[in-house]
Amino acid sequence: MGLLSLHMLIYLNLVCCGAFSQAESQTQCSPSTTKKHTELSRPPSLGGSWYSPSCEIQPGPQFVLRHYQFSKSSKDFSIIRYYYSDEFCRDPAYSIKGEGTISPGTPSWYLSEATDADVQLTKLTVTPYKADVAVVLGGFIQQGCHGFSEVKDVFSYQSSLELNASDYTCLQSLSFSVNELLVLRQVNYYKRKGNYNVMDSTKTAESLDTGRRSRHRKSRRQLSLAGRELFLGNGVWFSQLDRPSSYQLPLYSYEHKDCEACSCIDKASVDNPPMECDGGHQYSGSARVNLTGHWSSAACESVPYSLFTLRSLDFNEVDGTYNIKTTYYTDNYCTLPSFTLTATGYLVSEKSFARLQNTRSYQLIFSKLSVGVLSETMAKLLSMGDTSRCGHITNWQLGEMHDVTNTGGCDALNIAIRDSQYTLIKSGIDSSKSEYMIMSEMKPMESAFNTEVTNFTPKLIKCKAEIISYASFKTQKLTQSLSSQASTHSISGFLILGVMSLLQ
After folding, report:
1. pLDDT per residue over 359-379, tens digit each?
2. What is the pLDDT of residue 218?
3. What Rg, from alpha-carbon coordinates, does the chain have?
4. Do residues 500 and 430 make contact, with C-beta atoms less than 8 angstroms apart?
5. Distance in angstroms (rounded) separating the CA atoms of residues 460 and 311
6. Residue 51 burial (10 A CB sphere; 0-12, 13-18, 19+)
7. CA atoms within 13 A on the CB side of 286
């Protein structure tokens, strides 16, 4: 009998890191979790340019376009981040350019399908495009960095600095880091050259035996490259010891068919920043979308500590009720489920958020939380835990949902029931004319209006066909529970799952 040590610390936001539920049988609501004609490139072939597919909303919120370039040898990099004053990336504020060396190494033991890399930043260039921005940046630079001259002419000001090990204070003062390059994952997409019966593959060549490799090479000759995606680490870190444990949304190669901003960014430079890379379309600026309906993850989503999620949300703005289901997986394609969480309650609209169009703050009131296990490993873990603090369930079975509200959550998963939470919800219409919604991370109500928004989740797409009948939804036990409860609660903004050891 061996000992399987599963040392994991999982920081997961229940609503922000979600799941797909009842729409799985509906093609118009199904997320894109599997890719035809895809291949994992390991080690990644970084040579060339990579671009943001559209204006990105990053923690802050900050509005960013990225242009990353790597030498053919994949040893040198030049990355540019353009920062904007508006969510459509039309009003440039400043840019930061980082140059250095990168050495892709061995497969990551921690983050699925990633390759670890060593990164050395050697030069930093800061370029403000506005006088007031130059003043603010100048203060940060002069306080936290050495070697920068005083800002004299904001439109021609461009300073560079050779960095050493003590310059992380400078990076931190500018909220800049290249630690996202410490983990790399590249996926290549292919299209058929003709009418062939081509093998679909989401496996790497290194995982194929000799016979299958031969068939893989034959199939590849019948395909042409349609695009590449580069997944980098998520978050901001200021120590080389801090390696990311989840992925950002990917950068696209120039030939990628879904990269509407690639050409625009490619033609720009730090002296001539990209503008109107959305083609002049203001999809997000259309009338606010009605939240009532069924929403689903657009694709398999990466969350911290090498887990992946699909989300399914049902909102009813008429009676203010919601139903959220989040399923967690252990693979990049969301095919190996681990456990699922469902939450019901109601939401109260608060006020508009000035920095983003079609965005409102909401108070989410929690009514009921259920947990279900979808893998033998998780079933064993929860069965071994303190059942008095996780729904009083002594024998967890696969696929069974259990109410853990009466025990205040689940200690084994470190889920605690708290007072009401605050979130921002932004809705609109994207370039494919689909209705979408993004949510900010959850915050306690008492600190909601004193704390800057720090993070938004990947977008959810509204199903084109209604899946839930809200007339019947309103008569279910959810409404009865809401009216009968003397006090209301909400789900804790995060859960920490500590798995120490599991006997097999």
Report:
1. 888 888 888 999 999 999 999
2. 52
3. 24
4. no
5. 8
6. buried
7. 15
